[in-house]
Design a protein that fits this description.
Shape: elongated
Strand content: 15-25%
Oligomer: single chain
Bound molecules: 5-O-phosphono-beta-D-ribofuranosylamine
Helix content: 25-40%
Largest sheet: 7 strands, mixed
Number of strands: 13
Order of helices and strands: EHEHEHEHEHEEHHEEEEHEEHH
Radius of gyration: 23 Å
Number of helices: 10
Distance between the termini: 46 Å
Structural class: alpha/beta
Length: 321
């Protein structure tokens, strides 16, 4: 089985979601492991639980600290623990935009409402006051705007006659504990899922002008130019020829460049069987923290090397704006 994604959990209080995540991570099919539990309150109850379970902890009170300094210390703790993802579980701090941006796509949060309804506080009371039939919980990606990132999963929880915010919160909590571990596991597991990786590469490749997909030796490939005379600029490789990598093969400028890249960054590149001999490099996709912009840059560069002049000229013109 592929290596598990490393997750740091940030808490501020009880940490019941953290506990749900932690115990779920110990199940054999979990795609993540918890490498750190960090809190902005050294008294946070959840820290003691994490310690008892042998998980590393970090605590630093934010009191008297500038927000960006506190964020930086929390972030450093996560990085030092080797975290690929930060999972916020009742972390009652607003993060700086820079922090949220640096971890975009790699930071998740749980929020006790059916987003986009009721971002912010007092969610249960607001749902009751509005006469909603359901409250609930959402797991979403964190972006600089509060509780506004892409929703990855939700569970609805019925609001009963005479419901109070506390009684609703208590039931929503059960739903939270079911939802959060599952969404985290699915989300971080995508980076090893060949189907997901293929769909991402396909989307990026087909966004290039005059591009079409055609299978080559059983693998998806993408060509630039007309259907008739187009040339390949990328191939998708799912653990081909004994390689453990899921990768996209693209053209380098020279054999020297290929060998230099493979030597300097073996976690990111490899020289594929057969194709390597003619200057194609394997860009490894099934690894934590993969930067899709980087993959897009490689695809564009490879596309440029074979695309008809008419198409590259249009692209150059578009790039000027
Ligand atoms: C949960 O209700 C969660 O939705 C919200 O904060 C609360 C955290 O509770 N973001 P706990 O510390 O996980 O018990």
């Amino acid at each position: 089985m592929a290596e598990k994604a490393k997750v740091a959990i940030f808490i501020s209080g009880r940490g019941s979601n953290m506990a749900a995540l932690l115990y779920a991570s110990l199940l054999s099919d979990s795609a993540f492991e918890v490498v750190l539990v960090a809190a902005n309150d050294p008294e946070a109850e959840g820290l003691a639980l994490a310690e008892a379970e042998g998980v590393s902890t970090f605590a630093l009170s934010h009191k008297g600290m500038v927000r960006s300094d506190h964020d930086a210390a929390m972030e450093k703790a996560a990085r030092d623990a080797g975290a690929d993802y930060i999972v916020l579980a009742g972390y009652m701090r607003i993060l700086t935009d820079e922090f949220a941006t640096r971890w975009e796509g790699r930071m998740l949060n749980i929020h006790p409402s059916l987003l986009p309804k009721y971002p912010g506080l007092d969610t249960h009371q607001r749902a009751i006051d509005a006469g909603d039939s359901h409250g609930g919980v959402s797991v979403h990606l964190v972006t600089p705007e509060l509780d506004a990132g892409e929703v990855l999963g939700q569970v609805k929880v019925a609001i009963r006659q005479g419901e109070t915010a506390d009684s609703l919160a208590e039931r929503v909590r059960f739903a939270e504990h079911q939802l959060y571990p599952r969404v985290v596991s699915e989300y971080v597991g995508r980076e090893n899922d060949p189907e997901f990786l293929l769909s991402k590469v396909r989307e990026l490749a087909l966004a290039l002008p005059q591009c079409h997909e055609r299978e080559s030796h059983g693998s998806p490939g993408w060509r630039a130019g007309s259907e008739k005379s187009g040339k390949y600029f990328a191939y998708f490789n799912d653990q081909h020829h004994g390689s453990e990598h899921v990768a996209v093969l693209v053209k380098t400028g020279s054999m020297d460049e290929l060998l230099d890249l493979v030597e300097a960054q073996p976690q990111a590149y490899f020289k594929p069987a057969y194709y390597g001999a003619s200057g194609w490099i394997g860009v490894i996709l099934n690894r934590p923290g993969l930067d899709w912009n980087h993959v897009a840059d490689w695809l564009e560069r490879s596309w440029r090397s074979v695309a008809p002049k008419s198409a590259t000229k249009l692209m150059d013109a578009a790039d000027q704006f």
